[in-house]
Specification:
Rossmann fold; two-stranded antiparallel sheet; alpha/beta; binds S-adenosylmethionine; about 280 residues; seven-stranded mixed beta sheet; 2 domains; about 40% helix
């Protein structure tokens, strides 16, 4: 929007102009609401109000036009019905990952289960499990100290101080952690995959997306040591790429896990593979 067009503009006019600029009405409303420190419902109730913050809102629109993800501009993203702080130091929580939560909550685990989330990022998986199952002891690890700082902020905002956060390469201990559940959405994209350089993904931290040339490297390390950390009857749940289901299932079986199965996400793509540690 030209400077001359900005004077005395109303919420309605600003919304219409920004929608046209972005070609996306919802995103325009989210940017305007964020710039005004309000929510979208407020916008609808104040369509004829004049806007003073036009320059600041225009700056947000330009960031979006340059491709920056909405979640980084707004600094938040909803996951499993809760609001999470999101910065460029963490992966933006995906709706597909809610499948991991659903599957974990369906398992026949004790009320005082011990759970570990590996590669916690925002903390969305660990904090959601703790909120949904207050009796569980939930731990989370991440190799990135910056990601853990974001997880700490989310832990505090959600009042879930009981969740323990560790900076660690995969497991926070080499001694057995006696876990009933290991859950993880690790980096699993091959570093040569062209998707890493496209869309929102190109703004996200590389360490969150790819373990290197072998997309299965971190998954393999998680599975290798899982039997040491699981109690009998404990479960391992791994989110992975749509074409990695058979490979991940093979890894789980190769390490003695049973009841191995792969579950599709809402788009029908293989997304989570799980297995249990049974006694001999
Ligand atoms: C795909 S992101 C998942 C983030 C979050 N759990 C989610 O689902 O939105 C993977 C996370 O694993 C972390 N990570 C990468 N390599 C790791 C390793 N070797 N050990 C622990 N965490 C690792 C990254 O820093 C990143 O936060």
């Amino acid at each position: 929007m030209e400077k001359s067009e900005r004077a005395g503009v109303s919420v309605r006019e600003l919304r219409d102009r920004c929608s046209a600029e972005l070609g996306h009405a919802l995103e325009a409303e989210l940017m305007i609401a964020h710039g005004l420190g309000r929510n979208r419902a407020w916008l609808y109730a104040h369509l004829d109000d004049p806007v003073d913050e036009v320059d600041a809102i225009q700056a947000l629109i330009e960031r979006r036009r340059d491709g920056e993800p909405v979640a980084y501009i707004l600094g938040r993203r909803e996951f499993y019905g809760r609001d999470f702080v999101v910065t460029p130091d963490v992966l933006i929580p995906r709706p597909e990952t809610e499948l991991l939560i659903d599957l974990a909550l369906e398992l026949p685990l004790p009320d005082n289960a011990r759970a570990l989330d590996i590669g916690t990022g925002t903390g969305c998986i660990a904090l959601t499990l703790s909120a949904e199952r207050p009796g569980w002891t939930v731990m989370a690890s991440d190799i990135s100290s910056r990601a853990l700082e974001v997880a700490r902020r989310n832990r505090q905002r959600l009042g879930l101080d009981r969740v323990e956060l560790f900076q660690a390469d995969v497991y926070p201990s080499s001694d057995s952690l006696d876990l009933n559940l290991i859950v993880t959405n690790p980096p699993y994209i091959n570093e040569k995959d062209h998707h890493l350089n496209e869309g929102d993904v190109r703004f996200e931290p590389r360490t969150a997306l790819t373990p290197g040339a072998d997309g299965l490297d971190v998954i393999r390390r998680i599975v290798d040591t899982a039997p040491r950390h699981l109690v009998t009857g404990g479960w391992l749940l791994i989110e992975h790429g749509h074409d990695q289901g058979a490979a991940v299932a093979g890894l789980l079986r190769g390490h003695g896990l049973t009841d191995v199965r792969t579950r599709p996400d809402l788009a029908g793509l293989d997304r989570v593979t799980m297995g249990a540690l049974r006694s001999e």
